[in-house]
């Protein structure tokens, strides 16, 4: 992401925003300390957007014509949900596949759930670490490599599915923009494999859910706030802090007092996967504060 400029909070640039968006320019407007900040995904678009803004600001005729052009544009067809998902195809695909898997497995109640666990719990032993390793190796030798991923798509209840879907939507959109689609998909799949594998080794195969990946997203936002807070593209810090406290509550056994058990190892490992991945990305892309995100 590249910051173009910041402008007074009271300045109305809705018509300019809609016009540039309609022309395929990926532009975002955020608020920071009482001012609006204009951002673009492609650094090459920065001079174009800046020039458009200067003309929009200085020439009333340009503002009037843009307002007329935007008003004359037909309203986009489709539901508001579809329009919100359109800029995030990876998020949309993930949400759809998670829902399909939840329905297919009856939220963990159907026999089909056995195909989503990291090993076949009915046929293979998993009582200790040695048997877990041997069972997993046997599973992979059979060609069932997909089981390294599939537990993330298994949700054991409606609330479980809803929470993880909301976490993907809240924390995932910024990362799809930052990492690009290929990078974002690699991040998601990597987080799923690492968190599933760690949880299995520590606690066995009786787990499922996207929460290991969700905490990788949380970890990425935590690294963003720590290393590049001025980018202002991260999820609200209160949400990040609450998610971390929630993770720690599970690890300390607080949730067990209320009859709720978490895949704590998956949460912890996923969080650190996201934290380190984002830290490395910020370092290699030169996006830490003061490096490559200067305004005008």
Automatic annotation (TrEMBL):
<feature type="transmembrane region" description="Helical">
    <location>
        <begin position="87"/>
        <end position="107"/>
    </location>
</feature>
<keyword id="KW-0812">Transmembrane</keyword>
<feature type="domain" description="Rhomboid protease N-terminal">
    <location>
        <begin position="3"/>
        <end position="58"/>
    </location>
</feature>
<dbReference type="InterPro" id="IPR022764">
    <property type="entry name" value="Peptidase_S54_rhomboid_dom"/>
</dbReference>
<keyword id="KW-0472">Membrane</keyword>
<dbReference type="GO" id="GO:0004252">
    <property type="term" value="F:serine-type endopeptidase activity"/>
</dbReference>
<dbReference type="Pfam" id="PF01694">
    <property type="entry name" value="Rhomboid"/>
</dbReference>
<feature type="domain" description="Peptidase S54 rhomboid">
    <location>
        <begin position="142"/>
        <end position="280"/>
    </location>
</feature>
<dbReference type="GO" id="GO:0016020">
    <property type="term" value="C:membrane"/>
</dbReference>
<comment type="similarity">
    <text>Belongs to the peptidase S54 family.</text>
</comment>
<protein>
    <submittedName>
        <fullName>Uncharacterized membrane protein</fullName>
    </submittedName>
</protein>
<feature type="transmembrane region" description="Helical">
    <location>
        <begin position="234"/>
        <end position="254"/>
    </location>
</feature>
<keyword id="KW-1133">Transmembrane helix</keyword>
<keyword id="KW-0378">Hydrolase</keyword>
<dbReference type="InterPro" id="IPR050925">
    <property type="entry name" value="Rhomboid_protease_S54"/>
</dbReference>
<feature type="transmembrane region" description="Helical">
    <location>
        <begin position="152"/>
        <end position="171"/>
    </location>
</feature>
<dbReference type="Pfam" id="PF16733">
    <property type="entry name" value="NRho"/>
</dbReference>
<dbReference type="InterPro" id="IPR038244">
    <property type="entry name" value="NRho_sf"/>
</dbReference>
<feature type="transmembrane region" description="Helical">
    <location>
        <begin position="183"/>
        <end position="201"/>
    </location>
</feature>
<dbReference type="InterPro" id="IPR031976">
    <property type="entry name" value="NRho"/>
</dbReference>
<feature type="transmembrane region" description="Helical">
    <location>
        <begin position="260"/>
        <end position="282"/>
    </location>
</feature>
<feature type="transmembrane region" description="Helical">
    <location>
        <begin position="207"/>
        <end position="227"/>
    </location>
</feature>
<dbReference type="InterPro" id="IPR035952">
    <property type="entry name" value="Rhomboid-like_sf"/>
</dbReference>
């Amino acid at each position: 992401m590249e910051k173009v400029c910041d402008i007074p909070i009271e300045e109305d640039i809705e018509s300019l925003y809609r016009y540039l968006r309609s022309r395929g320019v990926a532009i975002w407007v955020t608020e920071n300390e009482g001012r609006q900040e204009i951002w673009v995904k492609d650094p090459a678009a920065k001079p174009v957007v800046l020039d458009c803004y200067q003309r929009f600001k200085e020439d009333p005729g340009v503002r009037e014509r843009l307002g007329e052009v935007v008003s004359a544009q037909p309203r986009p067809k489709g539901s508001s949900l579809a329009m919100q998902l359109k800029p995030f195809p990876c998020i949309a695909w993930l949400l759809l596949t998670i829902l399909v898997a939840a329905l297919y497995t009856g939220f963990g109640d159907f026999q089909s759930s056995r195909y989503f666990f990291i090993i076949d719990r009915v046929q293979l032993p998993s009582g200790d670490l040695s048997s877990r390793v041997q069972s997993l190796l046997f599973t992979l030798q059979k060609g069932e490599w997909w089981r390294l991923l599939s537990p993330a798509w298994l949700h054991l209840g409606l609330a479980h599915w809803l929470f993880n879907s909301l976490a993907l939507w809240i924390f995932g959109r910024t990362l799809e923009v930052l990492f690009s689609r290929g990078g974002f998909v690699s991040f998601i799949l990597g987080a799923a494999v690492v968190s599933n594998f760690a949880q299995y080794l520590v606690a066995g195969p009786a787990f499922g859910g996207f929460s290991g990946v969700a905490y990788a997203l949380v970890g990425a936002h935590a690294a963003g706030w720590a290393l590049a807070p001025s980018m202002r593209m991260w999820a609200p810090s209160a949400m990040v802090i609450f998610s971390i406290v929630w993770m720690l509550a599970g690890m300390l056994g607080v949730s067990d007092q209320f009859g709720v058990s978490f895949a704590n190892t998956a949460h912890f490992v996923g969080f650190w996967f996201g934290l380190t991945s984002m830290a490395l990305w910020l370092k290699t892309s030169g996006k830490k504060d003061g490096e490559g995100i200067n305004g005008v």
